[in-house]
Amino acid sequence: MPHSRRSPKHFFDVQARLKEIIDDVNFRVSLVIVEGKHDEQALLRLGLKRPVRRICDSMMPTFAFVDEVVEGYMGQTVLILLDFDEEGMRMAERVGNELEARGVKIDRFTRRSVSRLLLAEGIRRVEEVGTISSRAEF
Questions:
Q1: Mind listing the pLDDT tens digit for each residue in 86-125?
Q2: For burial by CB atoms within 10 Å, which of 51, 78, 96, 103 has the most?
Q3: Where are the domains of the chain?
Q4: 39 and 54 in contact (C-beta within 8 Å)?
Q5: How far apart are CA 8 and CA 26, in angstroms?
Q6: Counting beta carbons within 10 angstroms of the beta carbon of residue 36, is it exposed (0 to 12), middle (13 to 18) or buried (19 or more)?
Q7: Could you tell me the pTM of the whole model?
């Protein structure tokens, strides 16, 4: 069924599932990595309370960004929530592999869960999670 024909209750349920995922992230994850400030703001509106690092706004080469994350979060769990387009998927995989190789635990399960949920709604960009709220209004 195309997402435009789904009922407001469907979108309310999707939004509730996203909030459950964010609540779990708040409990288990030490850091969330996103692309930019709009991604961060969208996740904060969903209730994210964990520290966030913006990879694209950092103005650092990727290796320097990875160094900083390793320095602050070695042995801890980090969630990489970059966009779910081809570039975002590739970057998330590369950064995740580099962090893991240097002792940072990467929460790939949650990224896959969010990806499946959002892609089913036609959403590829993290900053667009707020559109689910507007679709959920009766």
A1: 999 999 999 999 999 999 999 999 999 999 999 999 999 9
A2: 78
A3: 7-129
A4: yes
A5: 27
A6: middle
A7: 0.91
